[in-house]
Structures are given as C-alpha cells and as structure tokens.
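Example for tutorial group B:
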C-alpha cells in the first residue's frame, strides 16, 4: 500500500487560530432545515432583503456588453475612485484624495488587509466586543494580541472613548471602531468620538480602522459622524466602507477604503498579489450606484425603520426579553437575561431547531455578547411578525436549558 495515500497536508499554525462568522453556519443550518421541509424564518443573516436597484444591474450588464471584461488597475477603475471621493464630498463636505482610494472585493477585505499589515506577535489590537467576528479572528491569525473594547448596553451600545483610551499601551498598533455597529445597532455619539480622537494625541503610534459600512443606516434624523471629519488623524486613518449594505449588493463583492499615505503602497501591492483587481463589470455597477439616483437608499432605510419599530416593540413584549432601540444598522440586540436561558447560543440554537427562527447568539460576536441574541430585520414585516409570535410561544412553553 502506498504511504502517500495517508499523507494529510496541514496548514501553518496560524490557521489553528483563524475563526469564522457563525452567521454563515446559521445560514447553512437554516437552509438545511428548509430543505427538509421546515418553515424557517431567517433573521440571522446581515444582508438587505431588497434587490440591487435595476439601474445598477443594468450598468454592470452594459459594462460586460461594452467589453469591460479584462483586468482593471489593481486599486480600481479611475472613475470609480473619483466617484467615491465625490460621494464623500456630497455627504460630508470633506475632501478625500481619489488616489488613496482602493476598491476591494468586499468591505471585509479592507479589515483583512489592515489587520494583516499591522498585526504580529507582540502587537496589540483593540476591537469592539461584541463586534463583527472577523476582527478578532484576523487579529488572532496574525499572532497579535486581541484587546476587546467592551460595548455596553448602558452606553447605548456606543464605543466608550475613556474605556478604549485606557486600554491603549505602547504595544497598541491598531484600534478598530464600528459605528453604526454590527451586531448591536449602536451608534457612537459625536462627543465620544471627539474625546477619543483628542486622546489619541498621546498615542501617535496607533492607527485607526473605522468601519463605517452602515453609515447610511441611521434613524430618527441622526447624522453620521465620520472619522474623516478629524484632519488630525488623517495620516493614520483607514476608512472602511462599501456598497454591500447601502445598495443591497452583498453578493457582488465590492468595497472601498481610504488609506493613509504610509500604508497605501503596501495595500496596493497586497491587491496585486492577492486579487489583482475587483471584477470589472461590478465596478461599473458600483459607479452607477454612486452617480445614479439615491432615492433607492432612502426608501430602503425608511422600510428598515418601520421594521425596526415592529421588531423592538415585539421583542419587548416577549417574556424575559428587553430590547433597547437600535439607532443604526439593521439589527436588534435584545437582552435575554430575564428569560432564564443562561446561554444565548443555546437559546439561538433552540429557537432555530424548535421554533424555526434563525437568530445569532451574542457570544458569536465576542464574550461581552453573552446575555443577548442578534436579530437582523432584513426580512419582511410579515415574516418578522410571524417570527416574534413563534419566539413568544417558544419562550412561554419551553423551559430554559
Ligand atoms: N463590516 C461590518 C461591520 C459588517 O457587518 C460587514 C458585513 O456584514 C462587513 C464589514 C463586510 O461587508 P462586505 O460584505 O462588503 O465584505
């Protein structure tokens, strides 16, 4: 018998430390249950349930017909980088250099690049907890030490400047911020960001990654505070944004980032090494998204707002559940500590298996997520009502595990 038949390749140790996003596992489990004939309502996945607006789709189709099927510059097509800068100017009255904009295959790629570039053993990286799970996963992958910045319900799920600043040491290389936030829907008040930026003066070695992918998902007339508004940190700010959420384009795999001068060449080279460029017709779709009518965004956000009220009212009527009103994104993060369920992940699993409602346990977003579950309200009002009814019946009938 050949010995080669038993050879089992294995990756370097860093891959023992890489994590993942449980939302995809929940999506797979929900799909498997649906395939068995179960009626599953999915409030687990974080993507708009709207279709990409037709003019964006048409622009991408036209790009293919016009022959845009080859490689593009690795940082993205010039008109798109210029359109990103124009959009930022329109929305925030702030100038950014299109020459520092990098178009990437998904907002996630920017966090991958930033953490890879600044993380190494001995370095410390601060990240929000609960927060998007890929932050911690990538920090651990690089061998850097992940330092969670607790995101607390009593702070309206906003980032605490004082707490974050107190965690910075001389080994801190990067601080990650995310507002409006996943998974909590929290929005960090401007005063808190002012205080954080002021405190950074004492820590000139720290780079900031501001994940503003939900910047248009704000309610009650709230204005977005972008880190671009602080010229004093522009030389060390990586601004992450993209089209996935704003224009319902998650599957197109598109994002953009603004990079500071010192990190631009490294990210450009990483692009050349890893993905060459973003899919050319998708970039033309993205261009149409930024230069075309914006009513589609406002309409989608208005619909999310209606659902937000439905979800929060419904959750607060459930036994043992209390839900703060999320100010942004499209997630609710109810506190389930009064239900008797001490494990939010077990509750989320039981809700899926027994009540047919997919949600995500708070601990999938970090240790400080215990006691909460995340519901994405990217589903129809009708389905949200049905899901809340099922959750109510379940919580009344089933004793906590
Ligand atoms: N940042 C946050 C906070 C997110 O929630 C997500 C997606 O869920 C992303 C970034 C990544 O977005 P993309 O699909 O563009 O990679």
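The residue assignment follows.
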């Amino acid at each position: 018998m050949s010995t080669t038949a038993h050879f089992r390749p294995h990756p370097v140790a860093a891959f023992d430390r890489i994590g993942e996003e449980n939302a995809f596992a929940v999506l797979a489990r929900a799909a498997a249950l649906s395939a068995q004939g179960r009626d599953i309502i999915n409030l687990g996945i974080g993507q708009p349930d709207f279709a990409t607006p037709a003019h964006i789709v048409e622009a991408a189709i036209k790009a293919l017909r016009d022959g845009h099927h080859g490689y593009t510059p690795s940082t993205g097509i010039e008109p798109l980088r210029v359109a990103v800068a124009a959009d930022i100017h329109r929305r925030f009255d702030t100038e950014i250099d299109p020459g520092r904009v990098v178009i990437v295959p998904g907002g996630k790629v920017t966090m991958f690049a930033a953490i890879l570039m600044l993380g190494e053993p001995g370095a410390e990286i601060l990240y929000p907890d609960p927060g998007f799970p890929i932050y911690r996963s990538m920090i651990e992958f690089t061998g850097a030490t992940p330092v969670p910045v607790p995101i607390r319900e009593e702070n309206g799920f906003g980032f605490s400047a004082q707490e974050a600043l107190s965690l910075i040491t001389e080994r801190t290389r990067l601080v990650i911020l995310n507002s409006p936030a996943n998974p909590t829907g929290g929005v960090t008040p401007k005063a808190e960001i002012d205080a954080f930026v002021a405190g950074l003066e004492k820590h000139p070695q720290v780079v900031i990654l501001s994940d503003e992918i939900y910047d248009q998902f704000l309610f009650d007339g709230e204005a977005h505070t972008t880190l671009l508004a602080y010229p004093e940190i522009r030389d060390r700010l990586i601004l992450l944004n993209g089209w996935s959420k704003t224009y319902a384009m998650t599957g197109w795999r598109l994002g953009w980032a603004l990079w500071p001068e010192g990190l631009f060449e490294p990210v450009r080279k990483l692009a050349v090494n890893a993905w060459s460029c973003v899919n050319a017709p998708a970039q033309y779709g993205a261009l149409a998204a930024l230069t075309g009518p914006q009513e589609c965004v406002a309409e989608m956000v208005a619909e999310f707002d209606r659902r937000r009220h439905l979800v929060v009212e419904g959750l607060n009527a459930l036994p043992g559940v209390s839900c703060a009103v999320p100010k942004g994104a499209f997630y609710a993060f109810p506190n389930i500590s009064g239900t008797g369920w001490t494990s939010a992940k077990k509750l989320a699993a039981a809700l899926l298996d027994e009540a047919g409602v997919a949600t995500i346990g708070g601990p999938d977003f970090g240790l400080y997520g215990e006691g909460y579950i995340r519901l994405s309200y990217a589903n129809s009002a009708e389905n949200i009502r049905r899901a809340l009814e099922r959750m109510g019946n379940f919580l009344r009938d089933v004793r906590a595990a």
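The chain has 13 helices and twelve strands. Compare this with the pattern of hydrophobic and polar residues in the output above.
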